[in-house]
Structure formats: C-alpha cells, structure tokens
Design goal:
single chain; mainly alpha
C-alpha cells in the first residue's frame, strides 16, 4: 500500500540540523520556494502598479465587452483588480496551499478577458503559463506548507 506523502516543514532550526540540510537540497522544495516567492512578488507588484501605472497602462488590458458590462469606470475597476491582486499575494504568503489556487483561478479569469481582445493572445498564453506555475505551487504546498 502506498504511503501518504511526507509533509516537510518550512526552513526552521539551526543550519547544522541534518534534516534542514536535506530539505534545503531537495529540488522539489527549492522549486516550491521559488514559486512561493514569485507568486507573492508578482501579484503584489502588479497589484500595486495598478495605482501608479509605472509598468504599463493597465486599463488597456480590459476587454471592451467587459468594460461595457461594468457598473463603474474602467479605471476604477482596474484599481479594484489591483486590490484583489494584493490580497492574492497576501493569501499566498500566509496560506500558499489555498492562495495558489486563488491565483490560478484569477489568472484564468484574466485569460478569458484577454482572449476577448484581438492582439492580446500572446499575453493570454503567457498568463496560461503563469497559471500552470501557480497550480504547481498549490500542489507543492500540499507537501511543504506548514501553516
């Protein structure tokens, strides 16, 4: 009978701890940490930039069909999106197992929006790749999340 996967704890303990050394050298754990940090940083930066628009004019990424359905101005909606992305980053930080799936679903919503805009299919494809990374984080968090 297959044994359930062993849950690893987050880095804690002295560097001389042999379990810490083995955990830190585990490629799956390293991948988890890379994705964990990345899916905190990316939504946090993108969400905050919705307020400053230093990276890009985020309003251009709203499909006209979506804008017509909004009860608020497009820019106001973009600001709400920014708040949601910041909350998603916080969720990944404190509960990566749950937060990763929230980010995955959020990215799928963004993909649907982008597919409604001719000429933005490349960005939709990039976001699909990001969603796979978020999904992988959720799966890895099953083993490595301790909180």
């Amino acid at each position: 009978m297959a044994r359930p996967p062993r849950r690893e704890s987050f880095i804690e303990g002295p560097a001389s701890d042999p379990n810490l050394s083995a955990r830190a050298q585990n490629p799956a754990y390293q991948a988890y940490l890379i994705l964990y940090v990345g899916f905190i940083a990316a939504p946090l930066i993108a969400g905050a930039d919705k307020f400053f628009q230093l990276l890009t004019n985020w309003d251009q990424y709203l499909a006209p069909a979506i804008v017509r359905m909004l009860p608020v101005a497009a820019h106001t909606f973009t600001l709400v999106v920014g708040v949601i992305e910041i909350v998603a980053a916080a969720l990944v930080a404190v509960k990566p197992r749950f937060g990763a799936y929230v980010v995955t679903a959020w990215l799928w919503g963004i993909i649907v929006n982008l597919l409604l805009i001719p000429g933005y299919y490349d960005i939709a494809l990039r976001d699909f790749g990001l969603s796979l990374g978020a999904l992988a984080l959720g799966r890895l968090a099953e083993q490595f999340q301790t909180r």
